[in-house]
Design brief:
The protein has helices spanning about 1-20, 25-40, 45-50, 50-55, 60-65, 75-85, 115-135, 140-145, 170-175, 190, 195-205, 220-235, 260-265, 385-400, 435-445, 450-455, 470-475, 495-504; strands spanning about 100, 110-115, 145-150, 160, 165, 185, 215, 250, 270-280, 280-285, 295, 305-310, 340-345, 350-365, 365-375, 410-415, 420-425, 460-465. The chain contains 18 helices and 18 strands. The termini are far apart. About 35% of the residues lie in helices and about 20% in strands. It holds the Pfam family GH3_M. This is GH3 auxin-responsive promoter family protein. It comes from Algoriphagus halophytocola.
């Protein structure tokens, strides 16, 4: 494998030279929109909204915004995607071979997102761009001689009676890997196809000594559990005792920082953390520079992006889109401003609100950070707590107490007196005594809106503590264990009450 490592590294160096000059973000995005409209102009959606005429306009971007409304998932599915499950040429040419069941955290049931051949190609293209960017990190050749372990959802897909297969997006991607991927991909398709999470991780732990893992990709909470299972199974001190070349972890799905300390505890050597924005709706962004975990937007890969300011110009006090929100293009965004992301793609998503809130960390190139979900800003009584602000408070609390807190859940509930409180559940081995007061203090100092709410309608907070074992048992009970599962940090009241009932 040594010669392969040398060749791959040399190839990345050459690719970096050839692709050093990119076209402007605005020009690239206009080009992407034209290509999408051209490909879909003969579909039912394209004919209904006049894609052919939009393409003739002097300013097709403005014409596109005038003619095509903004859709959320419920609207897109009810009006268009439900028909695409049965018929061809609805929102994209042909009939999708796959539908992705979203493993995200919104809604009462899984979304079903169409996955087209072009869409799978776009995700591979973004992945290739991410690999090419590794040139700037100056990794040693040993990384490119080793294997990558992808902890995905099950690659065993379900056959739908309408003629397509469905599963989570990571499982669909793995099931479509060409056979030559077996040279470097682990755990391999056979283990990846095991449906039961614990059985799959046990199989990974059993095979682990036979692999030379240099990179791992997956959601932090489940990767941590897998690494601990391997260490326990083989009675190791750290994961580097079995995989000495492990040096890159590609995180995704949730914010990484609350997991950093626990990852470091399992490693003997420093590892490079890359962030990825890989959703059922697309491979949207990835870390491309060594000095930051901000993610470069995939502007050249079959996606057209729009941005709605996540303030009074775009949303109401509950974080819901206004009937006529301000919509901006890539050339109009500003640093440090939060935006709800809108996507049009080669999967047949059109002006589709994904539900994520992002912030631009740089404009040249456009690099972003996910700050939360549109539906999960805790703002029932004007507290205006974003996921990012809550993460920061939890990290500070953990540092004060000398412990780690990976996961947490919070909800606005009414107490017996009819007053609102914030109910927190922390996954940690801390004692709960005194945590509520300290967390309350940290949130007040971090967010003036929260401090004001605490003097008015928000009468207090309550903190309960559960172990990691209790947390995973709760997920197992609700069929949410493993793979790409993400538990919402801001829970709806009924979900929180079910968790409290489970704890008690």
């Amino acid at each position: 494998m040594a010669i392969i490592g040398k060749l791959v590294k040399a190839g990345l160096d050459i690719t970096s030279i050839l692709t050093s000059a990119e076209e402007s973000p605005q020009h690239s995005q206009e080009k992407q929109l034209r290509e999408l409209l051209e490909q879909a102009k003969e579909t039912a959606f394209g004919k209904y909204y006049g894609f052919a005429e939009i393409l003739k306009a002097d300013d097709p971007v403005s014409a596109f915004r005038r003619e095509v409304p903004i859709f959320n998932y419920e609207q897109m599915h009810a009006q268009w995607w439900c028909r695409q499950e049965k018929l061809a040429d609805i929102t994209w040419p042909g009939k999708p071979d796959f539908f992705a069941r979203s493993s995200g955290t919104t809604g009462k049931s899984s979304k079903r997102i169409p996955i087209t051949e072009e869409f799978l190609g776009s995700m591979k293209s973004v992945g290739t761009s991410m690999i090419n960017s590794l040139h700037d990190f100056d990794f040693p050749e040993t990384l490119f001689e080793s294997e990558i372990l992808m902890l995905s959802s099950s690659a065993s897909l379900e056959h739908n009676e309408q003629g397509f297969e469905e599963g989570e997006i990571s499982g669909i991607n793995v099931s479509n890997f060409p056979d030559w991927y077996d040279i470097f991909y682990r755990p391999g398709k056979d283990i990846a196809a095991i449906s039961d999470w614990d059985e799959r991780v046990n199989a990974i732990a059993e095979q682990a000594p036979e692999w030379n893992i240099g990179a791992i990709a997956g959601i932090p909470s489940w990767v941590l559990l897998m690494l601990k299972r391997i260490i326990e199974r083989h009675q190791l001190q750290t994961i580097h005792d079995i995989w000495p070349n492990f040096q890159v972890y590609a995180s995704g799905g949730v914010a990484f920082e609350t997991y950093r300390e626990d990852f470091e505890a399992l490693c003997q050597k420093p590892i490079t953390i890359l962030d990825t924005y890989l959703a059922s709706e697309g491979f949207i962004a990835y870390t491309s520079r060594p000095e930051t975990m901000a993610m470069k937007l995939a502007l050249h890969h079959g996606y057209f992006f729009e941005f709605i300011p996540f303030d009074h110009r775009g949303v109401n006090e509950r974080g819901e889109l206004l009937s006529e929100p301000m919509v901006l293009g890539i050339e109009e965004v500003e640093l440090e401003q939060e935006y709800a992301l809108v996507l049009s793609s080669c999967a047949g998503a059109w002006r589709y609100v994904i539900g994520d809130v992002i912030r631009f960390e740089s404009l040249a190139p456009p690099q972003i950070k996910i700050t939360g979900r549109t539906k999960f800003f805790l703002n029932v009584v004007g507290s205006q707590l974003s996921e990012e602000k809550m993460d920061t408070a939890i990290l500070e609390l953990a540092e004060r107490m000398g412990k780690t807190i990976n996961e947490y859940m919070v909800s606005a509930l009414k107490n017996e007196a009819g007053d609102y409180i914030h109910q927190w559940v922390l996954v940690t081995d801390l004692e709960s005594k005194g945590l509520a007061g300290q967390l309350d203090e940290l949130l007040k100092s971090a967010n003036k809106n929260y401090a004001v709410a605490r003097t008015k309608a928000l009468k207090g907070i309550d903190v309960k503590v559960i172990s990691k074992a209790q947390y995973t048992a709760f997920l197992a009970q609700t069929n949410q264990k493993g793979g790409q599962t993400k538990t919402p940090k801001v829970m709806k009241p009924e979900k929180m009450r079910s968790l409290l009932d489970f704890i008690s």
